[in-house]
Amino acid sequence: MKGQFPVEKFQNIRTPFYYYDTTLLRRTLSAIAEEAAKHEGYCVHYAVKANANQQLLSIIRKAGLGADCVSGGEIEAAIKAGFKPEGIVYAGVGKSDWEINLGLDADIFCFNVESLAELDVINMLAAEKGKTARVAFRINPNVGAHTHANITTGLAENKFGIAMRDMVAVIRKAQEMSNVEFVGLHFHIGSQILDMTDFKALCLRVNELQEELERENIVVKNINVGGGLGINYQNPDGVPVPDFKAFFDTYAANLHLRKGQKLHFELGRAVVGQCGSLITRTLYIKQGEVKKFAIVDAGMTDLIRPALYQAYHKIENITSDEAMETYDVVGPICESSDVFAKQTELNSTKRGDLIAVRSAGAYGEIMASQYNCRQLPKGYTTEDMNNI
Ligand SMILES: Cc1ncc(COP(=O)(O)O)c(C=O)c1O
Questions:
Q1: DSSP string spanning 193-236?
Q2: 373 CA to middle of ligand 1, Å?
Q3: Exposed site from 114, 234, 340, 356, fewest CB < 10 Å?
Q4: What pLDDT, on the 0 to 100 scale, is given for residue 2?
């Protein structure tokens, strides 16, 4: 065992694969439960999009979180893992009819509706079943987040949500419909946010919108502020558990909840990000004209974040204690963007060494593809190691 990794066991597993430290996941979930419980009416959902591994879902469900889904497949995955429909919320700009029907049949807690056209379809499909769908409107708050442009979602130019100026009209429309019930507002400003002032800006916007709705005598039972809390990619061992206290306290200090109102959160990355690592084996060391390359057997098909968002992941050689050297760590895919890190320091690395790409529990395994006819990586948990 080197560091927190059971390296001996890893030698028996075909690489690349994901390893999930479920002890850390449980610690993270306890921190969420402890901090959220300090505030009345706070309900935390897990954003299944971050990682839908069934073993992780089951642990998260047992910790008492609800599920936030963005597709019919995610609703199925959540239900399979035992999440109760009354704790499931369903967002997404493009819900297909079969997905809406699935949500209606399961009687999920709420559809987070992103357009008037979608509201019409939900009302129609619910009528066909003689049901009433609970709906919340996803409002685009035009609040920026200090994060990568590809993962901001709350700006006026983004495809998500309904414009603020249309908010009252869509609620009125829903109130006139026979098969939908308006139950709340939904927001989500982006992901990997570490600056609490971004969440504060959302709170202030929600306060303004609530005041506008009060003037219209519209009662809002639920406010859902989405997810977005980031993790420390630079220092996963130093900061394994995100600062949930600062996160929930920011909402408590700035968002003015009305009596009896519930405040919902949809955390993804902050729940599972730090517990996962992509484990890959070094295939070759290649000395180029100016650089030394560590060519590993995992590629952008297994973890696309560096290629897609220029994301940083800490990389460690977990089978070498030798002196540090500088490498470009690259994968085998036929794309020049298939690079995990440029000019990074690793213990001197040779063929066969195991490399851990850290903080890969969120938006890793779930985004894997079979491009180049590759196999999908498997995911193993701490518990699985007992049987290997
Ligand atoms: C609507 C919605 N909720 C929650 C999340 C989860 O975000 P995060 O993983 O940053 O917490 C996302 C992510 O894109 C989202 O689109």
A1: B--HHHHHHHHHHHHHHHHHHHHTT----EEE----B---SS-T
A2: 29
A3: 234
A4: 53
The pLDDT assigned to 151 comes to 53
d(CA 204, CA 208): 6
Provide CB contacts within 8 A for 94, sequence distance 6+. none
Amino acid code (one letter) for 142 = N
DSSP code of 164?
A: G
How far is 195 from 173, CA to CA, in rounded Å? 36
How far is C-alpha 275 from the geometric centre of its chain's CA atoms? Answer: 13
176 CB burial (10 A radius; 0-12, 13-18, 19+): exposed
- Would you state the pLDDT for residue 4? 81
Residues with CB under 6 A from ligand 1: 47, 49-50, 68, 91, 153, 188, 191, 226-229, 266-270, 362
Atom number of ligand 1 nearest to Cα 268: 9
Q: How many CB atoms lie within 10 A of CB 39?
A: 13
| Candidate of 90, 266, 271 to mutate for ligand 1, largest count of ligand atoms within 8 Å of Cβ | 266
| Burial 78-117, CB ≥16 within 10 A → b, else e | bbebebebebbbbbbeebeeebbbbbbebebbbbbbbbee
Which residue type does 76 have?
E
pTM value surpassing 0.90: yes
Q: Cα of 227 to ligand 1 centre, how many Å?
A: 5
Closest C-alpha to ligand 1, atom 16: 188
State the distance from the centre of ligand 1 to the C-alpha of 244, rounded, in angstroms.
16
Pocket test residue of 155, 158, 188 for ligand 1, highest count of atoms within 8 A of CB: 188
Ramachandran assignment for 166, one of left (phi > 0), alpha (psi -120 to 50 degrees), beta (any other): alpha
Separation CA 291–CA 327 (nearest Å): 7
Contacts of 263 (CB under 8 A, 6+ apart): 39, 41, 42, 43, 222, 223, 224, 225, 251, 255, 257
Distance 294 CA to ligand 1 centre (A): 33
Other CB atoms within a 10 A radius of the CB of residue 64 amount to: 14
Ligand 1 centroid – CA 225 distance (Å): 10
Backbone angles phi, psi at 119, to 5 degrees: -60, -45
Residues of the chain with pLDDT under 70: 1-3, 144-159
